[in-house]
Design goal:
The protein has about 240 residues and is an alpha/beta fold. It is built from nine helices and nine strands. It is globular.
């Protein structure tokens, strides 16, 4: 009986360890077990990458105005469904010189999905973004930050690098003051901020919290000596 108990305890411990590794691989920003990805840039320069998920939305043009005031380039991880719904807004993002990344077609949670499903989500968004904006996305961010088996192969086939974050704003849920404090506390050389100019693929999302946070955070960080870059530049800086 004692041997059976020991075996059961060992199996339970192994299962717990496996689940722990899986949870780390699926959700932890620094994890690369399920697909290649990055979560921060070069730390030798006072640069921060501003990234926005779930767009474009009807409020994205207002965000573009704020970024323009501060001369702040950004990377927008766009959903194919939103690009098809608002093609002109997607083109405005590109015309303003911002970088566009892939955020799947319909913003699903990727866990427990088949490899074929994951590939179709990425490839459909890739085709839509390129067809509307003329930009071939080089970077991918998983909805909800969830990676899964099959994502590595999908990224390889499409030539996409995964991008997670150093600090996520939680701007879809938290009040503006809390979001602002989180971003200011998360500021560091090479940081990648994750914010949202949409809410999944919902039309007319309320992103006032995000807009207020950007208005208040950018000048404060500039006073502290930071400047802002696209993901490409923060990963592979071309300026000293």
């Amino acid at each position: 009986m004692s041997n059976l108990t020991a075996l059961a305890e060992g199996a339970g411990a192994a299962m717990c360890a496996t689940m722990g590794v899986l949870a780390y691989a699926v959700r932890t920003p620094s994890a690369t077990l399920l697909a290649p990805s990055v979560h921060k840039g070069v730390s030798t320069r006072p640069a921060i990458a501003l990234t926005f998920d779930d767009g474009p939305s009807e409020s994205t043009p207002e965000l573009l105005k704020i970024l323009s005031v501060y001369g702040a380039p950004a990377t927008f991880f766009q959903c194919g469904g939103n690009v098809r719904r608002l093609p002109q807004v997607a083109r405005e993002v590109a015309a303003a010189g911002h970088e566009i990344g892939n955020h799947t077609d319909t913003h699903p949670k990727l866990y427990f999905k088949t490899s074929d499903f994951i590939y179709r989500e990425l490839s459909s968004a890739e085709e839509t973004i390129e067809g509307v904006t003329g930009i071939r996305a080089r970077y991918f961010r998983a909805p909800y930050g969830v990676r899964w088996f099959g994502l590595r192969e999908a990224q390889r086939r499409l030539g996409l690098m995964g991008v997670m974050w150093t600090t996520i704003a939680v701007d879809w849920k938290w009040p503006a003051d809390r979001v602002i404090a989180r971003l200011l506390n998360g500021a560091a050389n090479g940081a990648i901020f994750c914010m949202h100019d949409g809410r999944t693929v919902d039309p007319h999302p309320d992103i006032e919290v995000t807009l207020r946070a950007v208005r208040e955070v950018l000048p404060k960080l500039m006073e502290r000596g930071f400047h802002f870059e696209k993901v490409t530049d923060i990963l592979c800086p071309t300026k000293s």
